[in-house]
Amino acid sequence: MELSNPFCHTMAILLAVLLVAAAATTEADGALCDKSDKAALLAVKSALGNPPALSVWNSSTPCCSWDGVSCDAITGRVTELTVFALNISAPVPAAIANLTKLQILNLAYNQLYGPIPSFLGPRALPDLTFLRPDGNRLSGAIPPTATFFNLLLEGNLLTGTLPSTFGAAAFGEVGVAGNQLSGDASMLFGAKKKLNALRLSRNRFAFDLGSVELPEGLDILVIDHNMVYGSIPPAAAAAGRKWLAFDVSYNQLCGPIPQGRYTHRFGAKHFAGNKCLCDRPLPPCSS
Hints:
transmembrane; LRR_dom_sf; leucine-rich repeat; LRR_N_plant-typ
C-alpha cells in the first residue's frame, strides 16, 4: 500500500484548521455587533448631530470596534457607551433607550441640554448601574427613575428636590454638586445603606445633619455651601471610619466638632463658614 506524503498531509490539516478558524472569526465578528444595537448607536450619532469625533461610527464596520463602545464578548450586545468631552450640544438621544443591555452610560463634559429623560431608568434599561452626564447643561427636575447605583449629575442646571424614590434606592455613589437643587437630602443617609460617596456641594439643601445615620461604608461626604443645619454626627469621628473626603463648610451647623483623625487631616477650611461650629480644627467652644 502506498503511503501518503507526510508534508502534504500536514499541510492539509493546517489548511483545515485555518479554514475553521476563519469561519469562527467571521461568525464571532457577526456576533460582536448586535444589529439592533448598531442601529440604535447610529440613531444616537444622528441625534447628536453626527459629530466628527464619531466618524468611525458607520455601517461598514462592527459597532463593537467603535470608539466609546464596549460589548459583551458572547452576545455582542452593547454594555458601555461613552461620549466624553466632545463639545456636543443636543438633548440626550432617545435612541439610547434601545440599548437594552447597557450597563454604563458616560455622557460627561459636553453641552447636552434639556431634561434628564425618564427612559433613563430600570424599565427601559434594566442593567444600567452607572449614569454619568455630569458637566453638561441639563435642566429641570431629576426623574424618579434615576435610581442607579452610581449617579453622577454634578455641574448641570438641575432644579427642584430629590425624588422620593431616592429614599429606597441602593446607591453606592451620588453626585449632584453644582446644581440648583433644594429641599431635604436626608433620605440618602442610613446606617445600613451601601452609599460610600455623597457629593451635595453648592446647592440649597436644608436638613438636620445631626439626625441622620451615616452609612457604615461612607468615606466621602462633601456637602459644603448648602443650608444644612444641626450638628456633625458623633459617628463621623468613629475610629474605624477612613474618610477620603470630608467637607461641611459654609452651612448652618452648630456645636462641638466630634474629635477624630479626620479633624486633623482636613483642617479648618473644611469646617469653616458655619453658624457656630467649634472645637478643633476651629476655635475652642466657649465655656
